[in-house]
Design goal:
This protein has 21 helices and 10 strands. The protein is α/β, with parallel strands linked by helices and 462 residues long. It has 4 domains: 6-94, DnaA, N-terminal domain (GMP Synthetase, Chain A, domain 3, 2-Layer Sandwich), CATH 3.30.300.180; 121-284, P-loop containing nucleotide triphosphate hydrolases (Rossmann fold); 289-366, Helicase, Ruva Protein, domain 3 (Orthogonal Bundle); 371-461, Orthogonal Bundle (Chromosomal Replication Initiator Protein Dnaa, Chain: A), CATH 1.10.1750.10.
Length: 462
């Protein structure tokens, strides 16, 4: 610090003579704004330099500055003018972004930050087993895997990277693998949207939002899983929006996962969806038979190595399990574990017939689908009200989802064509036939339509 400067409590007095008593001004802030606002925001403002017609004030972060400017600046200026009439403007300097400037104070609230950090780390450690080496590649996930690796080679080149797909298809595995790859040389933050919300609410209750914001915005790689959990939570979306912008401004890599594409996130602010869609969106589809077989064989090998035993499942049994499991990888592994456990308990080599008996309740339960469920899932998937989808309106945004719902009702339920028609606002069975033919043709010709159908099936079969 310059020897010509004198430090007095929270005031740095420069060579130039200062006439303002900042302690008195702070006292007036507390009376005017109230103790809560003063403690959370205004107490941390520092007088850096005083001129005849304006002040330079120090604040800890960019967010801190933006918040004060947008909500309290007019009143602050009015308050300081009562102490010095010639003042007509206020400028702010960011303390943490000017660490080499000896005229500025560094604010250290390490104990509070550490509490947040420790709490997050306890719930969000990267799993060393979920890495790129043991991620099984197939046609349904090769694009997502390829760009996940590219992000690790060129940070911020694809920003944000948005990975979408149904439950249990490997999104979290990819996000975790990215975190592991980048962690040695970067400040990686990996958290689920649900935990992000938990810490957000906790920080509000403890009046500790400043440290919450600072902590999450320091990361050079920010990975957030299952972003769909912010739906309908306006204050959380507001915080996520500002966190997102702050990280993008400083060049941090952002990686996000969700169960659907950005523009299909219902009850999410349009500006958030626009920013998410502005990066690189890659999807993971339902695994095909070949990938499921590879996953089963790898899981068997892992169990054999872990428990030092032989798992005697022939190719017919493996193909049966892979073929009958229609939803996701998580369910597939669960079914495999059930079969292995049965064979271990009864000490026998299982046949396909044995597997049918073991799994008959599982597969029969999975396939119970109703027209009502299909209608609700489809309307939610396309983010349209159910009553509008069932209405007589024929606009494309309504007609296509309606046809998809009819198509799935025919394919996935035992209802007859007239019955399905009646469930769609008493439409004729010929309308259902037309819908089935149309969606069948489109799903064969249009990759986007095929992907939509597969994702909706996955949601129905969860």
């Amino acid at each position: 610090m310059d020897k010509n400067n004198i430090k007095k409590q929270n005031v740095y007095i420069s060579e130039e003579e200062k006439t303002l008593n900042w302690d008195e001004i702070q006292s007036s802030f507390k009376k005017t704004f109230g103790a809560e606002i003063y403690t959370s925001w205004l107490q941390k403002i520092y007088l850096v330099k005083e001129y005849n017609d304006y002040l330079i004030l120090g604040v800890p972060t960019r967010f801190f500055r933006d918040w004060i400017v947008s909500r309290y600046l007019d009143k602050i200026l009015e308050q300081v003018k009562s102490f010095k009439l010639s003042l007509n403007r206020i400028e702010f300097k960011i303390i943490e972004e000017n660490k080499n400037n000896s005229d500025l104070i560094k604010i250290d609230e390490l104990s509070k930050v550490t509490e947040i950090k420790d709490s997050i780390l306890n719930y969000n450690r990267l799993n060393p087993n979920l890495n790129f080496d043991n991620f099984i590649q197939g046609e349904s996930n090769d694009i997502a895997l390829s760009y996940s690796k590219k992000v690790c080679e060129h940070i911020s080149r694809y920003n944000p990277l948005y990975v979408c797909g149904g439950v249990g298809l490997g999104k979290t595995h990819l996000l975790n693998a990215i975190g592991l790859e980048l962690q040695p040389e970067n400040n990686v933050m990996f958290i689920s949207a649900e935990r992000f919300m938990y810490h957000f609410i906790k920080s509000i209750k403890k009046n500790d939002m400043v440290n919450f914001k600072d902590f999450f915005r320091k990361s050079s790689v920010f990975i957030i899983d299952d972003i769909q959990f912010i739906r309908g939570k306006e204050s959380l979306q507001e915080e996520f929006f500002h966190t997102f912008n702050s990280l993008m401004d400083k060049g941090s890599q952002i990686v996000i996962s969700a169960d659907r594409t950005p523009m299909k996130l219902d009850r999410v602010q349009e500006r958030i969806k626009s920013r998410l869609a502005g990066g690189l969106v890659v999807d993971i589809d339902t695994p095909d038979l070949e990938l499921k077989v590879k996953i089963i064989k790898k899981r068997i090998l892992e169990i054999e190595n872990q428990f030092k035993e032989n798992i005697n499942l022939n190719d017919d049994v493996i193909n049966y399990i892979a073929n009958e499991s229609k939803t996701n990888i998580r369910e597939l592994i669960g079914i495999l574990n059930r079969v292995i456990a049965f064979g271990r308990v009864h000490n026998k080599i299982l046949t396909t017939s044995d597997c049918k008996n073991i799994l008959k309740d599982v597969f029969s339960q999975i396939k119970v689908i109703t027209v009502d469920k299909i209608q609700n899932v489809v309307s939610n998937y396309f983010n349209i009200p159910l009553n509008e989808m069932l209405s007589q309106r024929r606009s494309r945004p309504l007609a296509r989802p309606r046809q998809i719902a009819m198509f799935l009702s025919k394919k996935m339920t035992t209802r007859s064509l007239p019955e399905i028609g009646r469930r769609f606002a008493n439409r004729d069975h010929t309308t259902v036939i037309h819908a089935v033919k149309t969606i069948t043709r489109l799903s064969e010709q249009d990759d986007e339509m095929k992907k939509n159908i597969n994702q909706i099936k996955s949601l129905l079969l969860e």
